[in-house]
Amino acid sequence: MDKTDARPTPPSVQVDPAPPCTLVIFGASGDLTKRLLMPALYNLSGGKLLADGFKIIGVDHNDNTDDGWRDDLTKTMQSFTTDHTSEFHPTHIDETVWGFVRDRLTFRKGDFSEPATFRDLAGALSGDVVFYLAVSARFFGPIVEQLGGAGLLKEESGAFRRVVIEKPFGSDLASAKALNAKLLAQGNEGQFFRIDHFLGKETVQSILAIRFANGMLEPVWRCKHVDHIEITAAETIGVEARGAFYEPTGALRDMVPNHLFQLLCMVAMEAPDTLDAEAIRDAKARLVEAVRPVPPADAVRGQYAAGIEHGKPVVGYRDEPNVAKDSQTETYVALKLTIDTPRWDGVPFYLRTGKCMTDRVTEIAVHFKPPARSPFRTAQEPEIEPDILRLRIDPEQGMSVAINVKRPGPQMHLGRVTATFDYGDFFRETQSVGYETLLYDCMIGDATLFQRADSIEGAWAAVEPLLRAWRDAPVEMYAAGSDGPSGADALLARDGRAWLPLGEG
Ligand code: BG6
């Protein structure tokens, strides 16, 4: 686990380009298209993973032309080279690599609620098509109904017609069920690819390998050896310009039943029989089904007030644009989950997520039980510090293990050390914004990294008691730049535990 052990990455496995399909992007002028889809297509083009016959049709309600859209996107791609805050910040844009994507772009003006938009599209489309709904959630159902109405989801002569749906998928159990019913009235489950971008992260996908490909870890990943597990997704940014979206949404809906539950599934599900999409999705669905609905007493919500973030003053949530001055929307959630499976009998899972916190950290910390019997447990020192394994998802990518060793010196005293591994030290970095694999997998029809309806509905069911209880409940305030509200500390203190401080890897 030392950098000196780093060996050159062996040549990566040869991957074939995706089949030559047409990608139709609804929301061609939107942020997601510019910030993530185009960089992902650029990276796929750089990796020679797009076929010559690949085409992209952008649809949006504003006026534009093919050339206009190409120029707009070219400018945005260039701007990333000087924008270090963007997910994609290459030193330069390779003209040939981007040219491959740019030359395949065409634009169509169209209102998403007008049947004419879809009739026109039907005239322009044949063969394999992926429809990407890079639009606000209120359009998901209507667009799929229009696609179905125009016959665009009929899979004829062996061609595929797939639909990629962004999050949020519903805003509670009832709306998620209603949306699923709308989709399944127009096509079959296999045609719908529900995105959770956390699954596009290499470090999240790697959890399967870490758990199930290591004889040292697999046997101890259960209640006999694990005391509790923490899952954290802390951000330093506030809601920025997203107040209008965030006000009716809040941290619970924005992060928990989707992103945090995906991390939960990866860390807690049983071993799938194989690595097939359905085997993995079955294992996840069974896990989600075993999560007990969270009692409101096991959850805490908070909202950031003005504070200091990395030395700079930050306004409170209520002073952000498009946010009510008396808003009770939470920007922080902490909760305790119980999983009813023999593997996790008596092991609490503590989840937390928040905006404007001390540090940006997405990680899973597995706290092991100390050895049952140990000569190091004495009358003077009855406690042995438990081992902690941290799966570091973002922005650090790797793993760390905190264990006890002998402190050098004449006497036998324990000292604490942390062994760390970073992916970057072992593998050549590949350019990725996280959407490359998701787009590629959808084109080749691999649904492993996409969410199935049953898991989505199960996750909403687990948080339903909180959605109900929090409708009229006040939020607890925490200072921007802190580790969250004090209620979150009390939630763990009740069980004789404490959160790991943020920013200590
Ligand atoms: C999005 C949420 O889905 O995930 C955002 O809507 C959040 O509020 C983001 O900031 C976090 O994703 P990441 O990949 O930056 O950790």
What does it look like?
The chain is an alpha/beta fold and 505 residues long. The protein folds into two domains: 18-166, Rossmann fold (3-Layer(aba) Sandwich), CATH 3.40.50; 199-369 and 434-439 and 452-493, Dihydrodipicolinate Reductase, domain 2. Helix content is 31%, strand content 20%. It contains 14 helices and 17 strands. It has helices spanning 31-46, 66-79, 95-102, 115-124, 140-149, 173-186, 202-212, 243-246, 250-268, 277-290, 423-426, 436-444, 453-469, 486-493, and strands spanning 22-26, 55-60, 105-109, 129-133, 161-165, 192-194, 226-234, 299-305, 307-309, 312-314, 332-337, 349-354, 361-368, 388-394, 398-407, 413-422, 476-479. The protein has a nine-stranded mixed beta sheet with strand order 16-15-14-13-7-12-11-8-17, with helices on both faces. The protein has a six-stranded parallel beta sheet with strand order 3-2-1-4-5-6, with helices on both faces. The chain has a two-stranded antiparallel sheet with strand order 9-10. The structure holds 6-O-phosphono-beta-D-glucopyranose. The site of 6-O-phosphono-beta-D-glucopyranose has 5 residues, from loops.
